[in-house]
Specification:
Elements (H helix, E strand, L loop, with lengths): L1 H22 L1 E3 L4 E11 L3 E11 L2 E7 L3 E3 L5 E3 L4 E4 L1 E6 L11 H7 L2 E6 L4 H13 L6 E4 L3 E3 L16 E3 L3 H12 L6 E3 L5 H13 L4 E3 L7 H6 L4 E3 L4 H4 L4 H11 L8 H17 L4 H13 L3 E3 L2 H9 L16 H12 L7 H19 L19 H12 L4 H7 L2 H6 L17 E4 L13 E6 L2 E3 L1 H6 L5
Helix pairs in contact: 4-5, 8-9, 11-13, 14-15
């Protein structure tokens, strides 16, 4: 009798064990695949070790614990033991049209470096629409592309094709009537945001902001030289690129500088836009840095936080220029990632540049980094962007270096990753769809060989990239770079 009772109890235990075991079994559908044994780094939730991530088509459909038993075909399984998963990266400040010969190669270079989304911040409307259409029509071989259309500038406009350094990126506006006509024409081409530029008058800027608000579009850009940071933000500006002209508004002599700018903007010598802008900055930038009023700086920071004004400081752009890092011999092998024509062009141009370092440039670059750190501590929102390919910044590669400089400026490694993932998504209001590693989010992802929370440059140690759910191997990524 006791034997039968014992047998019965053992049978119940056995059945219970099987029920519990079966409850941890997960069968992966044939139209899905699973990345097994990977550590997730979500920009909000941080590190989650040893997970299984299931992807169906282009969506993350399940995130499972390590002790869950996965039932899947070998072809539907990627063993990622020891690796790390981050969301696909964004470069939030690029220009396809700065070098039209390089533009066709830029999508591949971005993907090869784990950049799955870009924000084009200014170029002729036909070209940037073409690049956006390419991303929509072939979403695996191209990053997601968000466009502003041309820089919306006043007169004389800065980027007016006057030289190779100032190609045609902008549209000139002489009055409010032209602003209204041109901006509406840009909006009708289904741009994702708008970009204001430095030569706009205050009235032109206000007209631009009225249209943007009516069409529910964010406006980023440079603070117009005819305005101050405070007046531009109060008028609705949603973002500032490069912290441009911030120093002019937080100096103790800001009123004096403002009055002087208004006189200079009358342009009695009829200078081209690029020359007029350079003249104003050469006269005012260092004087502003000599007179920074930190009470005004705090006031500006508080306003940026209260109005949720995004900053894209492009710090490496200025460090690269001021220190002439591109002159270092170690940079030349990096150019092998570029198509031959661009490589040879850059090598020649770089060889013609002297090694003299201008102290004012170094000082300004350092101030930008310090200001970025202080604004970040005040919780001003930031995005990572580079301005590639301006300044010999290689598409994709430069984003990783920007993250390094952000960390040097006071961001934690996770905060830096956030600036290149969920933050740009938030700027566009799509933070519930992309930029994180969660169920229901878009499967734009990067698999890393080493932990970027230990060392931020580990974002460059890429094993593979997943674009729209499609995995690009290391070999495939290399084929997108090495053209020579």
């Amino acid at each position: 009798m006791n034997y039968l009772k014992t047998l019965k109890n053992c049978t119940l235990v056995f059945l219970l064990f099987n029920i519990i075991s079966c409850s941890n079994q997960v069968t992966i559908p044939e139209d899905s695949y699973v990345i097994k044994n990977i550590s997730i780094i979500d920009p909000i939730d941080g590190l989650q070790s040893n997970k299984h991530v299931v992807i169906t088509n282009d969506i993350i459909t399940m995130i499972l614990d390590n002790d869950d038993e996965i039932i899947a075909k070998d072809d539907n399984t990627i063993d990622a033991t020891g690796k790390y998963l981050i969301p696909g990266l964004w470069d939030a400040h690029i220009h396809f049209s700065f070098d039209t010969n390089l533009a066709p190669y830029m999508p591949g270079l971005f993907l090869a470096h784990g950049v799955t989304s870009v924000r084009d911040t200014g170029g002729p409307i036909d070209l940037v629409v073409k690049m956006k259409d390419l991303s929509l029509n072939d979403s695996i071989k191209n990053p997601n592309v968000y466009i502003a259309g041309p820089l919306i500038d006043g007169t004389p406009n800065v980027y007016n094709n006057s030289s190779p350094s100032f190609p045609l990126l902008s549209i000139e506006n002489n009055d409010i009537i032209e602003i209204e006509s041109n901006v509406l024409g840009i909006v009708d081409r289904e741009v994702d945001f708008l970009k204001a530029y430095e030569m706009l008058t205050e009235n032109q800027f206000l007209a631009l902001m009225r249209i943007a608000k009516k069409r529910n579009l964010n406006v980023t850009g440079h603070i117009p030289l005819s305005m101050t940071l405070f007046s531009a933000i109060d008028s609705g500006l949603n973002g500032i690129e490069h912290l441009r002209n911030l120093a002019l508004s937080v100096a103790s002599n800001s009123d004096e500088l403002y009055k002087e700018r208004l006189e200079l903007l009358k342009n009695p010598d009829d200078l081209p836009g690029s020359d007029l802008r350079s003249l104003i900055h050469s006269k005012q930038r260092m004087r502003a840095l000599d007179s920074i009023d930190y009470n005004k700086f705090e006031e500006a920071a508080d306003l940026l936080v209260s109005k949720n004004v995004w900053q894209t400081p492009t710090l490496f752009l200025y460090r690269n220029f001021s220190r002439k890092i591109f002159k270092d011999p170690s940079f030349i092998p990096e150019l092998d990632k570029l198509p031959s024509q661009t490589k040879q062009k850059w090598i020649k141009e770089i060889s013609d540049i002297d090694t003299l370092v201008v102290k004012s440039g170094l000082r300004y670059s350092k101030w930008l980094e310090e200001a970025t750190g202080k604004l970040h501590k005040k919780n001003v929102p930031f995005m990572a962007g580079t301005d590639t390919p301006i300044g010999y910044l290689i598409p994709g590669r430069s984003l990783h270096i920007e993250l390094e400089v952000l960390v040097e400026s006071g961001f934690s490694n996770l905060e830096a990753i956030k600036t290149a993932t969920v933050n740009p998504a938030t700027f566009f209001g799509i933070q519930d769809k992309t930029g994180r590693i969660k169920n229901g989010y878009k499967a734009d992802l990067v698999i890393l060989n080493s932990n970027p929370l230990d060392l931020i440059r580990n974002t460059q140690d890429i094993s593979s990239v997943i674009k729209n759910g499609h995995r690009l191997s290391r070999k495939s990524l290399d084929s997108l770079m090495y053209k020579n």
